[in-house]
C-alpha cells in the first residue's frame, strides 16, 4: 500500500501495534511543532486530491498542477502522486503557516494517520485486511505525551474513516499495478490505458466530463440513482472511477459492461 514516507534526515522505525496502545499527542505546544511538515516525501491517495481541491475551491486539474509532483516509484507503468513542497528554506509544505496547516480539516490521509501507518494486504480469497504500525521518527516529540490511544480510537479522533473505502480500493489497484504485468505488454505511463487510469484516479473533474460526454454510459451499466449522485459527489465519482479501472485494466470488479 502507498503510504507516507517522511525522508527527513532523521531515523525512523515502525512497530506493529496489534491490540496494544500507543502514547501520542500533537499540538502547538510540542517543541517539534510543524517539523514533520517540511521536506516530506508524501504520497497522495486519490481521495486526498478530492478533499483538498474542494477545500481550496480548485478544479482537480488546477490542484494537480499547482500542488503535486509525479514520479515512477513502486508501480512501473503508473506514476505516484506526491505533495509538492515549497522552495523556501527547509522546504515547508505549501499549506504550512506559522499557525499550522491551512487545509487541516482536509489534510491528506498520511498527515492525519501519523504516527499510525496502515498497511493493507490482499488475501488469497480476495478480501482485504489492514494492520497498523506505529512510526517513530526521532525528531517527533509527540510520542512523549501522556495521551494513550488504540488504533481504533486514533482513527475516529483523526476522522480517517471516510478515507478507508476509497483508499482500500486504490490499494487493491496499486498492488496489481506494482505486479508489472503491463510493461511486458509494451505499456508505460504515457500509454493511453495508463493515462485514462490516472484520470479516473486523480482528476475527477475531467473524469466527470468523460463519463457524461463520451460513450461511457452506452458501454457500462451505471444505475440512474448512482448517476445522479456522481454528477455532484466527487467521492462517489472516484469510487466509479476505481471500479472502471478494475474493469478496463483487469477485466473484473463491480462495474458491468453492457451486452
Ligand atoms: S498538508 Fe498540512 S499537515 Fe500535511 S504536511 Fe502540509 S501543512 Fe503539514
Ligand atoms: S509531534 Fe510529531 S507529528 Fe506533531 S508536529 Fe511534532 S513531529 Fe509533527
UniProtKB/TrEMBL annotation:
Top-level lineage group: Bacteria
InterPro entries membership: Puta_zinc/iron-chelating_dom
Which PANTHER family does this UniProt record tie to the protein? Answer: PUTATIVE-RELATED, YKGJ FAMILY CYSTEINE CLUSTER PROTEIN
What's the protein here called?
YkgJ family cysteine cluster protein
Q: What organism is the protein native to?
A: Desulfobacter hydrogenophilus
**Organismal lineage:** Bacteria, Pseudomonadati, Thermodesulfobacteriota, Desulfobacteria, Desulfobacterales
